[in-house]
Design goal:
Number of helices of chain A: 0
Largest sheet of chain A: 6 strands, mixed
Mean pLDDT of chain A: 92
Structural class of chain A: mainly beta
Largest interface: A-B, 26 and 28 residues
Oligomer: heterodimer
Helix content of chain A: under 10%
Helix content of chain B: under 10%
Low-confidence stretches of chain A: none
Largest sheet of chain B: 7 strands, mixed
Distance between the termini of chain A: 37 Å
Radius of gyration of chain B: 13 Å
Structural class of chain B: mainly beta
Chain lengths: 113, 113
Amino acid sequence: QKEVEQDPGPLSVPEGAIVSLNCTYSNSAFQYFMWYRQYSRKGPELLMYTYSSGNKEDGRFTAQVDKSSKYISLFIRDSQPSDSATYLCAINILTGGGNKLTFGTGTQLKVEL
Amino acid sequence: DTEVTQTPKHLVMGMTNKKSLKCEQHMGHRAMYWYKQKAKKPPELMFVYSYEKLSINESVPSRFSPECPNSSLLNLHLHALQPEDSALYLCASSQDLSSPIQYFGAGTRLSVL
């Protein structure tokens, strides 16, 4: 079993739709939960991070963490064509050598006009 | 400003060439990272530096040689690479090793012929 599982998509939605992106993880020692957005041929851009169960909102984006179920989600409201990108969940664990991020495989999202 | 700058943006090299990738950040971060990302895959950690010292080497072949000459600069020296090393090489930085939040550069797209 992979440490972080993410539905690869692709996911295609009409403009204005609510998008739900999800990841599950297996290691209870994971401490921080992050979402990165990656446009084609670019580096990952940090969207949001959280460390506690519950919701965290930032504009059109809401990150949700359920530690009891080991489930994290990113919701995008009023999706725009500019949201078309690959979304990577990333979960960190603190090791003796430092923080290590474990990424999901990424979900490719396309928002169509 | 959360900018991590990588140069060059693109690099084509032969298997006998020696080249270097460069990464720079001016956020005062003391931890820096190299990742490798193949197409449609998540980033994979290669090296971690903390206060200019190598903290993590994820069993990377010796044809990849990292160097951290100062706290703002991270290099990756390449020698005798194989075609399968073609990938997007990403640099990231964080406040320090205990900080889980990493900021990524745009990457260097490397092609090995």
